[in-house]
Amino acid sequence: MAREMNFTRILIANRGEIALRIQRGCRKLGLETVAVFSEADRDAPFVAEADHAVCIGGAAPAESYLNVEAILEAARATGAGAVHPGYGFLSENAGFAAAIEAAGLVFIGPDADAIAMMGSKIEAKAAAEEAGVPVLPGYRGADQSDARLLDEAQALGVPLLVKASAGGGGRGMRLVTDLAEAPEAITSARAEAKGAFGDAAVFLERYAPRARHVEVQVLGDSHGNALHLGDRDCSLQRNHQKLIEEAPAADLPDAVRDDMRAAAVRLAQSIGYRSAGTVEYLYDPARGEYYFLEMNTRLQVEHPVTEAITGIDLVEWQLRIARGEALTLAQSDVQFNGHAIEVRIAAENPAENFRPETGEITLWAPPAGVRLDSGVAAGSIVGHHYDSMLAKLIIHAPDRAGAIRQAITAIDAFAVGGVGLNLSYQRALLNHPDFQAFRHHTSGLAELFPDGWAEPAPEAEDAGLAAMALHLHLTPAGASPWESLGSWRLTAPAGRPGAASYWTTSEDDPIRVTEAGAGLTATLPDGQSTTTEAGALTGDRLSGRIDGVPFSRVAHIERSGNCWRVHLQTSGGMRVTDLRVLEDQHLARASGGSGGADLLTAPMPGAVAEVRVAPGDRVAAGDTLVVLEAMKLLQSLPAPIAGVVTEIYCAPGDTVAGHAPLVKLDPEEET
Fold this sequence. Notes:
Helices cover 26% and strands 33% of the residues. The chain has 17 helices and 40 strands. The protein has an eight-stranded antiparallel β-sheet with strand order 14-13-10-11-12-15-22-20. It has an eight-stranded antiparallel β-barrel with strand order 25-26-27-28-29-30-31-32, surrounded by four helices. Strands 3-2-1-4-5 form a five-stranded parallel β-sheet. Strand 7 (160-164) and strand 8 form a beta hairpin. The longest helix has 17 residues, at 254-270. The termini are far apart. Keywords: ATP-binding, Biotin, Ligase, Nucleotide-binding.
């Protein structure tokens, strides 16, 4: 039976961009917000934006955002009447939802029973079957013995997947293409599932190659009403983590689309679902069939694309449903307009196996005129404790082609300094002909870049402009070139035009910048040159004329280690160029051969997950010595050279700083 719940203050049990997004939804309804934060997030934007804020523990999630008692105490102390879990952390934890209700508070989401049922992949698929929703052929029985699982694998045939019942994000999942691999796949999936989710139960299902990931957004209230808000496609994934999402799902037969949507509503009604939820499917284009994957009992990361094409605020409806209100929308009231794309912006380096990036954001200049759900700003510190996603860029256009074009334009205008992002990689995905023609699928990322992806080299003009920007930064207007340390070689006071040398980190020959009147010329080592008239650097913007045509580009310059880092806006997106002046180049050359190759250091701050060697061990170059965990990712750190381990400076569980020494090697002598 529906009941009316009155609350005026909401605690948001989350952080970053989703906390800010929920705060916007609360303000829309005149509700106060309480931010809970860890010590690492004390100065984060979501804390400053809240009406009330409480520190609930240390940086590690287990000490703060996963600390149920600390969250409950913060709710009691601030007089919050409801708790919104956001996504991730405790958002799909049935025990947390039950604890909120037991404390006399309102959980903004479905009830604990629905969360528990959909949280078990086995129970969820059983509920889907009962509601008449197609599921993949497979085995989901209670008998978890090796013999039964192997018999079922034999009957199912390959390819098949072994999946954790309580899993998510690809954890506890193994692909089996040869039945001889099944025993090991079952054993390793169980072990990972137990470690990640505390539940070793697994199930088997048929693997559909070249399938797409399509999901349907549903809303249900406590009065028995349910409806859908259309579908989304989230097929572009890396390690089962979504990269780009869009709505509606393109290139989907109308009959399949209509059936998917109706099945999602049917499932929501059959379990008495309340709040926003997402029914996820695997669509097999080769068979023209779709299958139930799971139901996410929370707000999705990609919810903004649904909001864009429907004009319906999902957070607002979560809050209204939690207050006991009935849906005022009929299915016929939901209209779909245009196409929306969401690009996840993460602090990682895709060119180096998606290595997480950490540090202080020195520049945060997003494009104007588009929606950006962000959790950071200039001055924010990006640490290693949390997920690497910092923001989401959401584009809405009349059609898919227009949305792609606008997304690329927005990325090209996005200027960030201090911390590397995945923007160039996302731009490459949007530009890829397979994505534009909708030939991609959930496991097809390797097909898009079969030789791996590398950051595009800057065009000659862009490299020259980067050197000019640094030149102008180091020699402010009106200053004597003799006051510019290091870069000036021959100058006007000596009776010759000013000339400066800037070395890239990968070349011995410098880029030469020369002055002639009001003009600057940058000459690259290969002889190509670019001349700019009336060049000027004002703030973070480089301007001037090239061949008489005016230009103005973002050019952010910062000191990074023993070089200068220039972030330049180009026609191919933001490009980062590292340059050295004379003193930096001397320093680099002096230190380049002075040792250090025998020392493994941490490429970023993180926690030591494993140390795989001991003093006295002989290792080959490339052998994994240490496994580092940062931003929920495990990084295997290889031996830089062959040799014998002489010193180990870390142990599992240690938190280490970037560039901290980890393992010392005695180089193996050449014979």
